[in-house]
From TrEMBL:
A Pfam family matched in the record: YegS_C
Keyword annotations from UniProtKB, A to Z: ATP-binding, Kinase, Lipid biosynthesis, Lipid metabolism, Magnesium, Metal-binding, Nucleotide-binding, Phospholipid biosynthesis, Phospholipid metabolism, Transferase
Lineage: Bacteria, Pseudomonadati, Pseudomonadota, Gammaproteobacteria, Cellvibrionales
InterPro entries: ATP-NAD_kinase_N, Diacylglycerol/lipid_kinase, Diacylglycerol_kinase_cat_dom, Lipid_Phosphate_FormReg, NAD/diacylglycerol_kinase_sf, YegS/DAGK_C
Residue intervals of the DAGKc domain: 6-133
Gene3D superfamilies listed in its UniProt record: 2.60.200.40, Probable inorganic polyphosphate/atp-NAD kinase, domain 1 (3.40.50.10330)
Protein name: Lipid kinase
């Protein structure tokens, strides 16, 4: 249910200067805009996930909401302490992909400041994998190799094209694996080269995890890519980009609230929102309406 945060608000801004735009974005005009709208901002810099959590926890009882300036990894690392403090949050998308921002309907930094000024909020879900929280997608296989290739140097040099560069490098070293999937009690077994479980709508720089997915639908959306050649994968790219897995026989797709995944070989690395968090076997679940977030007045989450 949508809500509205009143004027004359106190906000904590935690900014990661290591994110792609974190040290170069000109935030002064936006901060002045917030002050004029009655939002009084205490700005803090953080260079690690632990430091971000410590800063938020320290100010937990002193502010009305938290603004997180950074990429998806920075925002995701804050999920547990936001849940702990019960604070609403807003985002300034300063990363490379900014997929959570897309899921919320935020397309630019200017729109993010407008969102904070307007004060409209709604509640969104969190994904859980082996007790680790995530907003967007957790994956294993090819997607993990892409993340490993997506170094800060690649992000800085290639910008929005960095995911394509990383994908090309990852494809050169990917390996297929056997996976068993239990979805709300239904068993599936197959060979795979990539498996992803989405809580949000977007991942990997604007790819859609499922055409019907939203970050407040109380569901996890899973897809698995069957092993295929580089050229076969290229033909699937438009379907993967748009979340149209139902149109491809080489993609297995399903949705549910409780997912259990085991692999052969076991112990495969799992990344969530671009960060390594755990390994297989893995239990996935969804925490419905877990966090309150500020969204644009025209966000798809408010206008359905």
């Amino acid at each position: 249910m949508a809500q509205h945060i009143s004027t004359d608000r106190r906000a904590l801004l935690v900014r990661n200067p290591g994110s792609r735009q974190g040290d170069s974005a000109d935030l002064d005009a936006g901060l002045e805009r917030l002050e004029a709208a009655g939002v009084h901002v205490d700005q803090q810099l953080s260079r690690s996930a632990d430091q971000t959590r410590d800063i938020i926890r320290k100010h937990c009882n002193d502010v009305d909401f938290v603004i997180i300036g950074g990429g998806d990894g920075t925002i995701s690392s804050s999920a547990s302490v936001l849940l702990e403090c019960g604070l609403p949050f807003a985002i300034l998308p300063l990363g490379t992909a900014n997929d959570l921002a897309r899921s919320l309907g935020i397309e630019s930094l200017d729109q993010a400041f407008a969102t904070i000024c307007d004060g409209h909020t709604t509640r969104i879900d969190l994904g859980v994998v082996n007790d680790h929280l995530f907003f967007n997608v957790a994956n294993l296989g090819l997607g993990v190799h892409v993340t490993e290739e997506l170094t800060p140097e690649v992000k800085q040099r290639w910008g929005v094209f960095s995911y394509l560069k990383a994908l090309a490098a990852a494809l050169a070293r990917h390996r297929q694996f056997r996976v068993s999937i239990n979805v709300d009690g239904a068993e599936h077994s197959m060979r795979s080269m990539q498996l992803a479980v989405g809580n949000g709508r977007f991942y990997g720089g604007g790819n859609v995890v499922d055409q019907k997915a939203t970050i407040d639908d109380d569901l996890l959306h899973l897809y698995s890519l069957r092993p295929q050649t580089f050229w076969e994968l290229l033909t699937l790219a438009p379907l993967l980009r748009g979340g149209r897995h139902d149109l491809a026989r080489r993609i297995f797709a399903t949705s549910g609230r409780q997912l259990n995944v085991s692999t052969r070989p076991s112990g495969m690395a799992i990344h969530a929102d671009g960060e390594p968090v755990t390994q297989t076997p893995a239990a996935f679940s969804v925490r419905s309406a877990a966090l309150e977030v500020l969204v644009p007045a025209d966000s798809p989450l408010l206008n359905r």
